[in-house]
Amino acid sequence: MNVRGGGRQILIHGAVMVLSGLVWGLVVPDTPHPRLALGAHIQFVSNGMLFIILATTLLALPHRVGPNSIWVMVLAVWLTWAMALSEVANSWCGTTQTLPIAARQAGFAGAESWQELVVRLTHMGAGLALIIAWALLVIGLRKPVSSSGADAQSRTSVSL
């Protein structure tokens, strides 16, 4: 996957994620656990904006981010979708282990163990992938980019 294609894909996912969060915000008061539904709304909108910033940086600024790094960034997008959707489902489950502050404020008793596991795994996967993706972007931005043709060509070979 090249930088342009990956950046565009991340941009589109970011925009759809923001739109999903805005639409989900209309449903928040009608869920069994509105405090967790609000968390899902915030996750969609904030992560969507995060991906729009990531994509804009990739597409507009000089960098040395390679194709393998782009794959990691796209994977982070997909894992973030899974995490945000698990929070939507959690608006009906009311898990307590992964989001203990929200659960404590709402007075939840907890959910089934498999529901707790799904929420925990999706949050761990997305969180780790986001940290790695942004670290790769920072590394790619810090490496000097020359305007010469040879150096611009080698730009695509720098990856993980």
Summarize this structure briefly:
This protein has 160 residues and is mainly alpha-helical.
What is the terminal separation in angstroms? Answer: 13 Å
Radius of gyration using CA atoms only: 18 Å
CATH fold-type name: Four Helix Bundle (Hemerythrin (Met), subunit A)
CATH class group: Mainly Alpha
Oligomer: single chain
Topology readout:
Blueprint: H1 3-25, H2 34-60, H3 67-93, H4 100-106, H5 113-142, H6 149-154
Helix pairs in contact: 1-2, 1-3, 2-3, 3-5
Provide key terms for this protein.
single chain, mainly alpha, Four Helix Bundle (Hemerythrin (Met), subunit A), 0% strand
Structure description:
- The chain has 160 residues and is mainly alpha-helical.
- It has a single domain, classed as Four Helix Bundle (Hemerythrin (Met), subunit A) (Up-down Bundle).
- It starts with a helix and ends in a 6-residue tail after the last helix.
